[in-house]
Design brief:
InterPro entries: AAA+_ATPase (IPR003593), ABC1_TM_dom (IPR011527), ABC1_TM_sf (IPR036640), ABC_transporter-like_ATP-bd (IPR003439), ABC_transporter-like_CS (IPR017871), P-loop_NTPase (IPR027417), Type_1_exporter (IPR039421). With 600 residues, the protein is an alpha/beta fold. It is built from 22 helices and 10 strands. The chain has a 6-stranded mixed β-sheet, sandwiched between helices. A 4-stranded antiparallel β-sheet has the order 2-1-4-5, with helices on one face.
Length: 600
Amino acid sequence: MSKKTQSPPSLHPLVRLVKYGRQYSNLIWKAIICSILNKIFDLAPPALIGAAVDTVVQRQNSLIAHWGIKNIFGQLLFICFLSVIIWGLESLFQYIYERLWRNLAQHIEHDLRLDAYSHIQELELAYFEEKSTGHLLAILNDDINQLERFLDFGANDILQVITTVIVISAAFFILTPGTAWMAMLPIPFILWGSIFFQKLLAPRYADVRDRVSLLNSRLANNLSGITTIKSYTTEAYEKERLGLESEGYRQSNQRAIALSAAFVPLIRMFILSGFMAILLFGGMEVINGKLAVGTYSVLVFLTQRLLWPLTSLGQTLDLYQRAMASINRVMNLLDTPITIPSGKIALPVSAIRGEIVLEEISFAYSNGYPIIKNLSLHIPAGKTIAIVGSTGSGKSTLVKLLLRLYEVQKGRIILDGIDIKHIILYDLRRGIGLVSQDVFLFHGSVRENIAYGSPDATTEEIIQAAKAAEAHDFIMQLPQDYDTIVGERGQKLSGGQRQRIAIARAILKDPPILILDEATSAVDNETEAAIARSLEKITQNRTTIAIAHRLSTIRHADCIYVLEYGQIVERGTHEELLDKEGIYANLWRVQTGVRQLSKP
């Protein structure tokens, strides 16, 4: 679970955001206050204009004259002095609120991205089978950026519109209670229109966010498979498929834009009615001597200042709805339950002996077809066992269950007498070194990839691990030897080179339990023999589980288990299994053409 307190998905997205960012409540309140003060000072110039008109028309009978300043020039000078202060304070508070809102946006964006990424890392592998990489990237990047844009501009715009309505409404009712309602008349219709448009826009922008996820998924998938695309000459086909996704995104946006663009023209008509009412009836009040010229000037300016900013509600509403759709997606990701929680029992690497017991375990993937069925297995500490079997027999699934990448659905797995469900996940996985047939190298240097998981390793330790994995010689032939950049997913290296670096990585980690999942599947026979010699040394006094199709690589294991349809059908040493004339012996004959090699 994320370190932040999660909110129920039924809550409004804005409420969920506020609950998430409550640690920044002090910063939020400062930004809100500065936005309000900025708008208050921004609304003051019409009052100064009214005072100037009052001074010119009324002269010694003006409002400022009643404050003791009789000289006309002095009155105008005093208005200029007030203008400097008001404009200065308006500029100051604008500078402050822009910094506060933008910094707040950066803080929350940073926290959300790290929390969302951290939460994704804690989710089980089954989650990633259902969600594409592009979908997750869209949330981590595009959706969180939408939130940043809203906090940068939208939140301040909403506050300032509210402040404008409250301050100017109060001024109207103080100055001209009889005509104030004319300026206020359009506001209920404008607010109703805003709420109405918001309800109509919400599902449209939710669809926009879903469409951009599909588009990102297609792009991420195609870029990852660019070699396959080129080799099968399907560039035109993939461009067409991307075009369909992009067209869907464009049309979804068009549907949202068609509605949001209608907001401002509609609101402008309501604004016009209020402005004309004040212009007409307020002017008649002046003619009839019921309203001062200066006050009338203030009212005309304030009406424009009150109603015209409401036209920006269309853009603000557009920004708001995009942000709310994005917030929902980010928060829903954070609310995704972690189905494989960490245990509480600490088991440091130095304390792990490596005895593994599988007690009647069963497991099936989401399709419901059982992969492992009531399997029991005892692996003594410090011994090397091998698991062989046909494709789909459940060999690699056992590895994932040992690492708790998936959870057993029946039975239990015990490490040194402790159910692995009760062991702290970090300690469990730290004690296991995995060399998979699907080697993943990160974009970076050879040195960084070997030291991945062992950041404190010295150069000498890295070189020794590379030598043990028979990788040192080819590394020294690279352009910058250990500092050579391997490219994304290690694409600058051959399959065998990538696999040897992965073995070096596991050797450097020096785990008490070593799992070799087809560790030599991508190397030639000569390299395989060299790696086999190295593995023979590094597996001593270390619990080792070797999964292999090439039986020659595991013939010296202490015990070999033959797995078929999720169950162990044969067990024994290499010689014992050959003597049984069963599945293993048949596999050996297929691979070697001989029944049995002489014992060493």
